[in-house]
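Retry 2 of 3 after timeout on previous attempt. Resubmitting C-alpha cells to design endpoint.
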C-alpha cells in the first residue's frame, strides 16, 4: 500500500470524524443513519428501520428513503469536495416496499463538471432487494 493512500485514507477518516461531530443533533442523527464507508467516489450508509420510520400503512416512509438517498450522495460530495454544497435536484424511484430491518444505501459520483456533481444511489434491504433508486445533482455554493 502506498504512503499516499495511507495519508489520504487517514485524512478521510479525520474528515468523517469531524462530520460526525457536526451531525450530532441534526436531522442525520434524528434519522438514525450510520456510515458504513465513505471516500471521494462512493459511500454507503445504513439505517435500522424501526416503527418511527414507518408510514400509516406500516411500510418505510418514502421521505425516509429519499433522505437516505440524499444523505448518502451528500456524504460522497462532502468527502470529495470539502466545500459547502447543497442538493440542487433529487430524483427518486420507489421500487419495492420495506417494513423494517436494515436498509443500506450506496451512492457514487457519475459526473462532475465545474461546481456541479451528479450522483446515483440505491437503497437495498437485508435480502439485497432494491427498495429505491435515485439520482441527484449537488452544487458547490462556496469556494
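Retry 2 succeeded. Sequence:
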Amino acid at each position: 500500500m502506498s504512503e499516499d493512500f495511507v495519508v489520504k485514507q487517514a485524512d478521510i477518516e479525520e474528515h468523517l470524524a469531524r462530520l460526525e461531530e457536526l451531525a450530532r443533533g441534526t436531522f442525520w442523527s434524528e434519522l438514525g443513519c450510520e456510515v458504513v464507508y465513505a471516500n471521494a467516489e462512493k459511500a454507503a450508509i445504513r439505517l435500522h428501520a424501526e416503527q418511527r420510520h414507518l408510514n400509516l400503512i406500516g411500510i418505510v416512509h418514502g421521505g425516509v428513503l429519499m433522505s437516505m438517498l440524499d444523505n448518502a450522495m451528500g456524504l460522497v460530495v462532502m468527502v470529495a469536495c470539502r466545500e459547502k454544497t447543497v442538493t440542487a435536484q433529487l430524483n427518486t424511484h420507489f421500487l419495492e416496499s420495506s417494513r423494517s430491518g436494515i436498509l443500506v444505501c450506496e451512492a457514487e459520483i457519475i459526473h462532475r463538471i465545474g461546481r456541479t456533481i451528479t450522483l446515483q444511489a440505491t437503497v437495498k434491504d437485508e435480502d439485497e432487494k432494491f427498495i429505491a433508486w435515485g439520482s441527484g445533482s449537488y452544487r458547490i455554493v462556496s469556494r
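Attempt log closed. The chain has one domain: 3-140.
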